[in-house]
Amino acid sequence: MSRLLAAFAALTLALAPAAFAADVTDPDNTLVIETDKGEILIEMLPQIAPQHVARVKALAAAGAYDGVAFHRVIDGFMAQTGDVQYGKAAADAREFNRVGSGGSDMADVPAEFSSVPFMRGTVGAARSQSPDSANSQFFIMFAPGGFLNGKYTVWGQVLDGMDVVDALTRGEPPRDPSRMTSVRLFSAK
Q1: pLDDT tier at 9 (50, 70, 90 boundaries)?
Q2: What whole-number distance in Å separates Cα of residue 117 and Cα of residue 134?
Q3: Containing domain of residue 184, as a range?
Q4: What does pLDDT average to over the chain?
């Protein structure tokens, strides 16, 4: 009887990702972010922001986001990450004060503003003052942010894992930041 229970338990675990996959309608445009707090699934929106989605896919495929810190996590606002240049610095490293000031070695991406509003779980491209300065960094909204509408590019929406986003360590920068341990497309899972 215990072998039967063990086999059933193994089968249940093997099928768990398939049940989870039922919510994913486009595996090639779904980003899986593994963090030290759990997993976040993001539906990317190539029909709204094709250049931003292409950039995120390229950086994820290269492993550039793996190990990058959430360097700005502001209660009631958003959690920002994606600095592939400085974001892997250890929390106590001298270079950690530069986290959030870098990008990738690719050219900046021009703005792709849309009418999609910034709501809880919306993923947007971080940038400097220039609308055409987005590169690798992005943020996930904790709450609606209508003041960002039409001023920042929306490129995704959290499908699952807002509880994980809510659990990220707070701060600017956080004392011991949460990190993206692995970032990949769902189709590469």
Answers
A1: very low
A2: 18
A3: 26-188
A4: 87
Q: Can you tell me the distance from the alpha carbon of 134 to that of 14, in angstroms, rounded to the nearest whole number?
A: 39
First vs last Cα of the chain: how many Å apart? 33
pTM of the predicted model, to two decimals?
0.86
Measured at the CA of 47, the angle between CA 45 and CA 50, to 5 degrees, comes to 80
Q: Is 123 contained in some domain?
A: yes
pLDDT (tens digit, 9 = 90+) per residue, 142-154?
999 999 999 999 9
In a domain, 66, yes or no: yes
Mention every residue, 6+ apart, whose C-beta is less than 8 A from residue 32.
39, 40, 41, 182, 183, 184, 185, 186, 189
pLDDT tens-digit series, residues 142-186: 999 999 999 999 999 999 999 999 999 999 988 889 999 999 999
Instruction: Tell me the residue type at 164.
Output: V
Residue 167 lies in a domain: yes
What does each C-alpha distance from 142 to 2, 4, 74, 118 come to in angstroms?
45, 44, 9, 10
| The two structure tokens encoding residue 20 | 């989870």
Whether residue 38 is predicted with pLDDT greater than 70 in this model: the reply is yes
Q: Which two tokens stand for residue 90?
A: 């250890």
C-alpha to C-alpha distance for 16 and 126, rounded to whole angstroms = 34
